[in-house]
Design brief:
Elements lengths: L1 E6 L1 E4 L4 E8 L4 E10 L6 E7 L4 E3 L7 E6 L4 E6 L8 E11 L2 E6 L3 E6 L1
Parallel strand pairs: 2-11
Antiparallel strand pairs: 1-3, 3-8, 4-5, 4-9, 5-6, 7-8, 9-10, 9-11
Amino acid sequence: VQLQASGGGLVQAGGSLTLSCAASGTIFNINRMGWYRQGPGKQRELAATTTDGGSTVYADSVKGRFTVSRDSAKNTVTLQMKSLKPEDTAVYYCHAIITGPTGVRNYWGQGTLVTVSS
């Protein structure tokens, strides 16, 4: 199983950006799929994720500004980011918990940099 992320880049404060991630390989079920982020000098933290029950979980710092959505038919997840702030600057990692032939595993994408200028 592989996660391929796209999107990211440089944006001014107050702007918008969309990240996308696609899972490929032999997948029986995607239990969770979403995004973590790691800012400069910070630990990796959850930004937003989706569960296989259809619910979403957001970090308090992004609630009301970020929207995460999953297309279960395509095994993709999208993160729409609005009203971006300089503190949103981070490497964003696609993450998924996937049930495959070898059982349930965590998978990470390659990371995509989001830079928000003030």
